[in-house]
Amino acid sequence: MDFRNAELPLPHRVADLLARLTPAEKVAMLHQHQPAIHRLDVAAFSTGTEALHGLAWLGEATVFPQAVGLGATWSPELVRAVGDATGDEVRELHHTDPTRCGLNVWAPVVNPLRDPRWGRNEEGYSEDAFLTAAMGAAYSWGLRGDHPRYLKTAPTLKHFLGYNNETDRCRTDSNLGPRVLHEYELPAYRRAISEGAAVAVMAAYNLVNGSPAHVTPLINDELRGWTDDEVFVVSDAYAPNNLADPAQQDFFADHATSHAAALLAGIDSFTDQGTDSQVTIGRFEQALAQGLITEADVDRAVSRALTIRFRLGEFDAAEGNPFVRTAVDQAEHRRLAREAARESIVLLKSECKLLPLDPAQHRTVAVIGSHADHLFTDWYSGTLPYAVTPLNGLRTALGAANVTYAEGTDRIALRYEDRYLVVDADGARLSRTRCEFDAFDWGHGVVTLRSTATGRFVRVDADGALTADSPGPSEWVVREMFRLVEQGDGTVELLHHASDGNPTTEIVIDGERRVFDLELVIDGAVQAAEVAAAADAAIVLVGNHPLVNGRETEDRLDLALSPAQDRLIREVYAANQSTAAVLVSSYPYAAVWAEVNLPAVLWTSHGGQELGNALAEVLTGAADPGGRLPQTWYRSVAELPDLLDYDIITNDATYLYYRGTPLYPFGHGLSHTTFDYSALRLSAESAIAGETVRVSLTVTNVGLRPGTEVVQAYTHQQRSRVKQPLRQLRAFAKLTLAPGESREVSLDINVDDFAFWDVTTGAMVVESARHKVMVGRSSADIRLTATLAVRGTTIAARRAADGPVAVIGHDEYCGITPAAAGVKAVEAGAWLCFHNLSLSGVRQAALSGTGRSVTLRLDDPFAGQVLATVTPGGPLAQASSVDGVHDLYLIFDAPDTTATDLVLR
C-alpha cells in the first residue's frame, strides 16, 4: 500500500489512504475521535491534548509558569525551550498510552490580551500582537520540533478569532473593524502559521461581525492564505452544536445545515458530544443526503487530518521516528521550570534599598499571606510533581531559623444559639463543640472555608450536602465557594456560590435554613502584623485563585485586591515598613496603595512547581528579576472600555492607544542594578517597504550587580491619514551584563511592519511619513530617539464615482458595529464617516442593505449640507449638486438598519 511507503511524496500517500476509505469511514473521521480502521491497520486518532504551559490533565508532568508569565519573560528562546520540553513529555506519555495522550496538542493561545478582565487572561502571552506572535511561534516551534519532515506534536493555535470575553461567550459578537482585524487580531496568529511552527488552529466560540467564528470566511480567505502547507482546523468543544442550538447561537435552522456550513467554511474536525461520534456522523449523513455538501467536501477535510497524522510519523516505521522517549519531569525540565519562573518575575517597584534582601540588615524575614505556602494551579495546569512554595524557597535560601510565617487568614466560628456549625468528613451538623474555619477572602463576597476539623476545604457535593474533604477548588464546577451574607440583625447566612453560572443557593443544616453569629477567633491581619513586627523585613504574598472570581466561563468584574488581602498588606506595612508585596496572579491588579506606600512590589504569574526557588533567588539577589510586563497595569477598572467592545483604536485601548498614565506601563520591569543607554544610530535615515532598518545602541550596566535587561524598540508614525498608535513595539532583545560591562545591541525593524489597513483601497499600505524610533526600558521609559523617513504610498482622496464604496471601510463612527459584509446601526442617530471623499460629478446615490432611511451629509453629521436621503436596498435617489473633496457622513434613522455598499454616481 502506497500510504505505507515513506519514500513517496506526502500528497500521494495522503491521497492513497483517502482513496482506500469508504464514504462512511471518511465521515467518521470528521469527529474529534477518529475510529480505528482495522482492515487497513489504521489506529484510532484523537485531537486535543492540552499543553498550554506543560502537559495537562493526564497526571504528573512538569508545570511551567502560566502563559502570561511566559510572556513576561520576553524571551522567545526560553519559551521555545519550554515548548520543547512539553512536547517531549507529550511524546513520552503517548508512547506509554496512545489512547490517553494524542499528539495533536491544543496550544498555544495567541488571543491578544486586550482586556485584563478576561477570565482566561492567564492563557495568553500579551496585549501586544507582535509580542504575542513571537511567543506563540516560539512555543509552537518547541512543540513541533525542528525535524524537517516529522512533527514532534501538532501545535494548534487557539482561539480564532476575536475571543476575549467569557460573558455570554457563545452569543456575543466581537466587533472587528477592518483596521482592528488586520492590524491587531490577525497578526497574532499569522507568524506561527506562516513560519510553519503551528500546523493547526482552533475556532472560537463567539461570533465575529455577525457570524459565528466557526463559519467565518476568514478561515479560508485569510488563515489558509498564509502558508502553502495544509492547516488543520478544529472546533472548540461543543461549539458545532451551538450553531443551531436555540439556547446558544441559533444561527442555523438545523444541525445538518450548520455542520455543512462549518465544513465548507473550513472546519475539519468537530469536537462535539464528547466521545460520542454518532451524533456528528448522523448530522453529516443528513447534510450529504440533502445535498448541502458533497463527498469532495468531506475528502478535503479528512485529507487535512490525515496530513497531520502522516507528518507525526504515524504510518512510518517506528525506528525512523526521530523523537525518542524521554522521562516526564526529568532533572533538565525541573531546571527549565525554575529558569522560566525566575525570568518571568517582574520587579514593579524598588525603593529604600529593601531589595535584594541583605542578610546583614534582614537577619529575620516574615513570610506572610495566602500564597506564601501554597502553589495554585489553573484549569490548564498539569498535576504538580512537587511544589516549592515561596516559604520553602526562602527557608532554603535564608535558613529555616531566619524565616517566620503567618498565613494572615481570619479564623471564624459560626454559632447558632448555643451550638456551632461543624463540617468535617462526615458532613455538616450543629454541635456544642466549636468547629472553626479559616476564611479565605477572594473578593466580591466570595470566600473559601478550610475546616480545622479536617484541614480540608468545605464544599457542597453533587447531592447538596456540606462536607470538609476537598483540597481546594480544582474541578470544572467549583463547589468550594461560599458567601457570608450579613443580615439586618448582624447575623450572617452561609450561602453556596457555584461556578456554573454563579448561582447563589441556600444551605440547609439539620433540616432548616440557618443564620449564624459570626465569631472572629483569630484576626489574620493582626496576627500577621505581630509576626511582621518581630522580623527585620516582611514579604506579603497575595493574589488570585485561578478558579475563583475569573476563569474560563467567568470574566472578572474589576482589578481590585480582595478587601482582606488589601487590609493584610496595610496592617503588615504599619507594623514593619520594610515590607515587600508579591502579587501572585493571573492578571494585573489596580494595586495603587501598594505602589504609593510600599518600598517594593513584585508580580509573578502562578509560576509552577519551582516558583518558590525562583522567587527566593530574586528576593535575595542571587538572580536579577528577568520579567517585564506583557500588559498595561491600570489604576482603575474605570480606565477600561466596555468588555465587549473590541475596537481598541476608537476606545484608546491597550498601550498602543491609551492616553492616560498607567499604574505600570507595558514593558515595565526593574532590575537590582542600573543600565545606561547611549549611541543610538540607524543603518539608514530613510527606507522603503520591503527593507529592514537596523537600530544599534550601546547598553551599559552602571550598577554594582549583574543584571538582566530587555531593550525595547518602539515606533510612532508622526503624520498619517489615519489615527496611529502612540507607540508600537517593533523589536526587543534580552541580555545579561556584568557590573561595568557594555554591549552593543542591534535590533532589526522591518519597514513592512509599519503598514496599516487602508480603508480606501482595502489593503495594507506603508504610508510616506516620518517615524519616531524610540528605544528604552519600557513603553513609557524611553531613553533614546531617532527619526526614520519612510518613502511609501501617498493616499489620495477616494473618488466616489469610481465604483461602490464599501461601507465597512469607513473612517469614523458612532453607534455602529460591523455586521457580515457591512455595518449595522445599534441606535437611532448612529453615524459613520468617510474622510476625504471626492464627490465631483455625483448626482445620484443608493445604499445596499436593509432598514429605514439614511441621510447623507457633508462635513458634519448634524449640521452639514444634505447630499441625499436613501433607503437601504431602495432605488437611486437624487443627490444635491456638489463638487470637491468632503467628509461624507451617513446618519442612520433607526437601529438595526444595515448597509454594505454605497453607490454615488
UniProtKB/TrEMBL annotation:
SUPFAM superfamilies: (Trans)glycosidases, Actin-crosslinking proteins, Beta-D-glucan exohydrolase, C-terminal domain. This is Exo-alpha-(1->6)-L-arabinopyranosidase. Belongs to the glycosyl hydrolase 3 family. PANTHER family: BETA-D-XYLOSIDASE 5-RELATED, SUGAR HYDROLASE-RELATED. Catalyzes the hydrolysis of a non-reducing terminal alpha-L-arabinopyranosidic linkage in ginsenoside Rb2 (alpha-L-arabinopyranosyl-(1->6)-alpha-D-glucopyranosyl) to release alpha-D-glucopyranosyl (Rd). It is not able to hydrolyze alpha-L-arabinofuranosyl-(1->6)-alpha-D-glucopyranosyl (Rc). Coiled coil: none annotated. It holds the Pfam family Glyco_hydro_3. One of its GO terms (biological process) is arabinan catabolic process. The keyword Hydrolase applies. InterPro entries: Actin-crosslinking (IPR008999), BXL (IPR044993), Fn3-like (IPR026891), GH (IPR017853), Glyco_hydro_3_C (IPR002772), Glyco_hydro_3_C_sf (IPR036881), Glyco_hydro_3_N (IPR001764), Glyco_hydro_3_N_sf (IPR036962). GO terms for molecular function: alpha-L-arabinofuranosidase activity; beta-glucosidase activity; xylan 1,4-beta-xylosidase activity. Residues 709-779 form the Fibronectin type III-like domain. Keywords: Glycosidase, Hydrolase, Signal. It comes from the Bacteria.
